[in-house]
Design brief:
It holds the Pfam family MLTR_LBD. The protein has 266 residues and is of the alpha+beta class. It has twelve helices and five strands. The protein has a five-stranded antiparallel sheet.
């Protein structure tokens, strides 16, 4: 659920909440943002109104998401400055083309584009096997890749190290919730935690030879192993662009490489 621009808390309350979320003292934030501690204290308590430039400077140092920077500006009495352009708009042609190029260039290995809730925006052909065998209700738009992967009727039934992988993914969502305090993301986090699956082994220290937590799956009777990387756009000034992420999966062993190349007819 996204907070409406017309229904926001006072600017001081929001700034204090973001500062505390980032575990900064008033002195630390004031020093980083080059403002006086006294003025910052007055802003947080509502005794002083910040300038537009100060709101944006504090938001930058607090690493506030663009969506929430608009809320800070509105709370301070200023107009929002960051657009949220639908991905299908002509203005986003270059963005869509870049995404397509990255997805196609990653073949024959799977890659997906997701939004801030891990809803699927696009995927390459190699990612199709992640969705094979899943019930129709899990594939209906907006298809959430985390729900698909952890639901017992989705990918979970084919994941061999489900407890380990599931807990690390849930911890990733937990950290996003801690960073953003997003209500809808919190709801997704609670839903994912409600799915069956033992997480006892997940937070155990990795073995000495491990360098990442793999996604191990059984597909067509063969055991596959993947690791992934996540890429985002640099210096975004549009909310939609800022919230896009490309997750690219790579084979973690030669058996997986051979399977993916055979499947793609390479």
């Amino acid at each position: 659920m996204t907070t409406a621009l017309s229904d926001v808390r006072p600017i001081g309350d929001q700034l204090r909440a973001w500062r505390q979320r980032r575990r900064l003292s008033q002195l630390e934030l004031a020093s980083e943002a080059d403002v006086s501690t006294r003025h910052l204290s007055f802003v947080e308590t509502g005794r002083s109104s910040p300038s537009r430039e100060m709101v944006l400077r504090l938001a930058e140092h607090l690493d506030v998401p663009l969506r929430d920077r608009n809320l800070l500006l509105v709370a301070a009495g200023y107009a929002p400055v960051f657009d949220e352009t639908p991905i299908e708009e002509p203005k986003m042609d270059a963005v869509r083309a870049a995404l397509k190029q990255v997805l196609a260039g990653h073949e024959p290995y799977p890659a997906v584009v997701v939004d801030r809730f891990w809803n699927l925006i696009d995927a390459n052909a190699a990612a199709a096997f992640f969705m094979e065998g899943a019930p129709a209700e899990l594939l209906e738009p907006p298809l959430n890749v985390l729900r698909l992967s952890m639901h017992p009727d989705g990918m979970a039934k084919n994941i061999l190290n489900l407890a380990e992988w599931r807990a690390h993914m849930i911890d990733r969502v937990r950290r996003h919730v801690a960073l953003t305090a997003d209500a809808a993301l919190t709801q997704l986090y609670q839903e994912l935690r409600s799915f069956p699956g033992d997480v006892g082994e997940a937070m155990a220290p990795p073995a000495e030879h491990d360098v990442f937590i793999p996604l191990r799956m059984r597909v067509d009777g063969r055991e596959l192993s993947f690791f992934s990387t996540i890429a985002t756009f640099g210096t975004p000034v549009d909310i939609t662009v800022a919230e896009l992420a490309i997750e690219s999966f790579y084979p973690a062993d030669t058996k997986t490489t051979e399977f993916l190349r055979e499947r793609a007819g390479w």
